[in-house]
Amino acid sequence: MDKVTATHMFESLASGIRLDIVRLLVRYGHDGRVAGEIAETLELPRTNLSFHLKTLTQAGLLTVTQEGRYQRYRVNLDAMQELVTYLTENCCAADSDSCALPAALDCAGDTEATAARPVAGRHVR
Question: Any bridge partners for residue 33, and if so which?
């Protein structure tokens, strides 16, 4: 992932409503929800919701599938993981002893991966 893509994703999340939409859709995983269900759950006007869904879809955080006359939205878990990876790719490279990120991020616990991570155009050894 590049900086422009990451910035675009973060900009799309810089709204309480859009953050609520993503958090809701994360709960439903691959099943997703149709727009009407999202609007009902979050108590949003459907006209307002469509703007937010379009913004999140254009940023790559949601996918949309046409199902008859409905559109089903799903969170793009791969894109979200890429964003987390982008944020943590140089995790604790300067001081792995003080790393406080969860082990689930595979940060500082994998010495080979940490040693090979580039920092400012060079490899950390």
Answer: 73
Q: How far is CA 87 from the centre of its chain?
A: 11
pTM above 0.85, yes or no: no
Q: Show the domain range for 29.
A: 3-79
In a structure prediction context, what are the per-residue pLDDT tens digits for the chain, which is 125 residues long?
Answer: 999 999 999 999 999 999 999 999 999 999 999 999 999 999 999 889 999 999 999 999 999 999 999 999 999 999 999 999 998 888 777 776 666 666 555 444 443 443 333 333 333 32
Q: Write the single-letter amino acid at 42.
A: L
Position 44 in a domain:
yes
Q: What is the CATH number of the domain that holds 46?
A: 1.10.10.10
The domain total for the chain is 1
